[in-house]
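hiii, so i know i said id send this last week but things got crazy w the move. better late than never?? heres the sequnce for the chain we talked about at the cafe, plus the structure i predicted for it. fair warning i was half asleep when i ran it
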Amino acid sequence: MAMDHGYSAAPPRQRRAHSLPPVLRAPLEGRTWREFGWILLSLPMSILLFTFSVTMGSISAGLLVTFVGVPLLAGTFAALRGLGAVERLRARYLLDLDVPAPEPVVEGGGGALAWIGGLLKSGTSWRQLLYSLLHFPWAVFTFSLVVPLWTAGWALATYPLWQWVFPAWGDAGGIQLYGDGTHNEYLDTPLEIAATCVAGLLLTVATPWVIRALNQVDRLMVGGLLGPSRLASRVVELESDRGVVVDTAAADLRRIERDLHDGAQARLVALAMDLGLAKEKLTEDPEAAARMVDEAHGEVKIALQELRDLARGIHPAVLTDRGLDAALSAVASRCAVPVAVEVDLDRRPAAAIEGIAYFTVSELLQNVSKHARATRASVEVWRSQDRLMLQVTDDGRGGADATAGSGLAGLAERLGAVDGVLAVDSPAGGPTTVIAELPWRG
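okay and structure toks below
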């Protein structure tokens, strides 16, 4: 499953339909002006961060021999955390980049010494120091490039509106292109004014895309250095996955208990009572007792079938003995529509992954039977490098959604708990294609 870097795009602002193409409307879009504002503010912020980091870092390093430098360096890191929070907030509103706060300081115990030790050992502290050092030259470069481009573009594009200033208030006909004391060249003819305006428009149209390209580097810096580490993000993800696994296991246990209580157990209790009555009638009314025994025999068959179905729902024996091909063929035979099964595996994956794959296909085929209104379906299983791929397709009515709190959403959570992925393509009117991807772990 693809890993993120601890950050994501902020919720997108509502967009309206436009008649102009994106290239022409980019200079007027709010996104362009917000990202331009990011570049404007980045220079003073980077100067503050760089100056503070270099100054306090140098003082702390010089005072390390007196042991005063240790708490001073920890205080520097704490201040950088606060400035990093300001940068994340700025990125959220100006770059539409939502970067979660990094992991808190891990203290080995109570007191100031533990806090100082936690700050000094924290990778977050050193990443934020690195951000303050690297962002300064980058902010100077982007400011020096974008501000002249943006201002020159708008100034030249609007040149016909303010060209009159030169002859009215100066000794020139327009912008001076050349002058050597004896000969001067000005942009003052109608053709030159129009050419200047066109050049300004081209520059104004191109600059927003330069701004967006440069700000991608800022996004990487903010997300990679001011957010949580990949390790911390992975720990949070694993904790969430563990919760999903625990909840799923508890739900499965409750389902098994309910099926036993309401199904086979209740049937066996009734069977015991019927046999008891038959035993009492054996001497008085043998024919009635025989009928009751015959009915009890039918109940035994039903109870055995229910127990077999329950055992199959826990882990089918055919899966253990013969693998996915035979097990999925058995599932397909019980589907309400004809199902074509194709399994192309040179060997078996890990038993746990094999079981998850079986129950994934089983649940998807149950959805086909109950909700799809399909006439046929297909199941394909293959291996792609170190991933086990499953695809279930039907020609039903479509409209399946894995994000609407349905059974597909629960299935996606179960797959995510083992680094799996579920992708659903189900337009209204069909067909529906569900692809599941699991780690091989064979």
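btw Residues 131 and 225 are 6 Å apart (CA to CA). thought thatd interest u
miss u guys!!
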